[in-house]
Amino acid sequence: MTHKSTNPQINHLPTKDALTHTACELITAAAAAAIAQRGFATIALSGGSTPLPILAALAADPDIDWRRWRIFWSDERTVGPSSPDSNFGAAKAALLDHLPKPGPLVMRLAGEADPDAAALAYEKVVSELVPARTDDPHHLPAFDLILLGMGGDGHTASLFPHTAALAETERLVVANPVPQLNTTRLTFTYPLINAARRVLFLVSGAGKADVLEAVLHGPQNVAEYPSQGVAPTNGTLTWLISNA
Fold first, then answer.
1. Which of 91, 113, 106 minimizes the C-alpha distance to 184?
2. Buried b vs exposed e over 198-224: b needs ≥16 C-beta within 10 Å?
3. Shortest CA distance to 72 belongs to which of 220, 210, 173?
4. From CA 166, how far away is CA 7, in angstroms rounded?
């Protein structure tokens, strides 16, 4: 499966703190621009440990108008929101619990529900709350920013190597069986991710260096390295990388 190529902006940061600071600047700038243009910002968060300091820093920013944010998740585990494995639960503890009221519109993926039904329901919500670009003939929802991470196996969101969701071309959100983890995940698909105005990849830790090299500079092999399939059609792709 091939995807339209995108020239990514690749930024190497010396420390995790520098990555956090730079990410916060990019996220708040993207949100502010969206609010100025359309009155609200649509932001999709990701799981993993790397975004958590960023979410905590955003929560402490007094200049963010949270009432104009619409917050989503690019993927979720098939667990309830109170589970320690829940992406929503982690973001709630790091960010949402610390925001003033009234706060953002928060739309979580129902990991505790039937996976296929939850994916369909979330796709409908995304389509209703995330406007398409006026110049997009496909009328796909265009997030102002999607935050992504990359796993040590090259996966992103819950698009894992050699799983069915990698080949999805119509659906925006799917339940994706992941045999190598003996589970099913809920995830955005490439059509939705690549319709975004901005995608921000966050990668930290020296242990991912070899996979990162393959993703960024190796031959195109999306089945093996799903992060290679992220290529916004009419948006920007930025990598923030810290080996520390």
1. 113
2. bbbbbbbeeebeebbebbbeeeeebeb
3. 173
4. 21
pTM given for the model: 0.96
Residue tagged 């829940």 (tokens): 86
Using alpha carbons, list the distances in angstroms from residue 172 to 110, 124, 156, 242.
16, 9, 15, 30
Mean pLDDT of the chain: 96
Strands 75-77 and 173-178: unpaired
pLDDT digits (tens, 9 = 90+) for 205-242: 889 999 999 999 999 999 999 999 999 999 999 999 99
Does the pLDDT of residue 4 top 90, yes or no? no
> CA angle at residue 108 from 130 to 28, to 5 degrees?
60
Q: Give the length of the chain.
A: 244
- Other Cβ atoms closer than 10 A to 173: 29
Q: pLDDT tens digit string along 76-98?
A: 999 999 999 999 999 999 999 99
Mean pLDDT of the region 29-57:
97
Whether 114 contacts 178, CB under 8 Å:
no
As a whole number of angstroms, the longest Cα–Cα distance in the chain is 48
